[in-house]
């Protein structure tokens, strides 16, 4: 015989799991200091300049 499932508890558990994954993504995206953001931006700009400087003109 099948186990009984309380749909209310299952629904709430599913929402909690989704909230945990969203929180983890937010920590990655927004959980950096200003210095870390500035450093990442500078590195990205430097990589873009290097890439643009290596382009071949037709």
What does this structure look like?
This protein has helices at 7-30, 34-53. It is an all-alpha fold. It has one domain (7-53). The chain starts with 6 loop residues before the first helix and ends in a 5-residue tail after the last helix. The model has no long low-confidence stretch (mean pLDDT 91).
What is this entry, summarized?
The protein is an all-alpha fold and 58 residues long. The protein has 2 helices and no strands.
Count of domain modules:
1
Largest β-sheet summary: none
The tally of strands reads 0
Q: Give start-end ranges of low-pLDDT stretches.
A: none
Give the termini distance in whole angstroms.
Answer: 72 Å
Question: What radius of gyration results from the CA coordinates?
Answer: 23 Å
Task: Report the β-strand fraction as a percent range.
Answer: under 5%
Number of helices: 2
- Mean pLDDT figure: 91
- Silhouette: elongated
Structural class: mainly alpha
Question: Helical content, roughly?
Answer: over 70%
Helix and strand element order: HH
């Amino acid at each position: 015989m099948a186990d009984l499932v309380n749909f209310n508890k299952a629904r709430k558990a599913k929402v909690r799991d989704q909230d945990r994954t969203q929180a983890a993504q937010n920590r990655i995206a927004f959980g950096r200091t200003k210095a870390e953001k500035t450093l990442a931006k500078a590195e990205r700009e430097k990589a873009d300049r290097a890439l643009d400087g290596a382009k071949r003109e037709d």
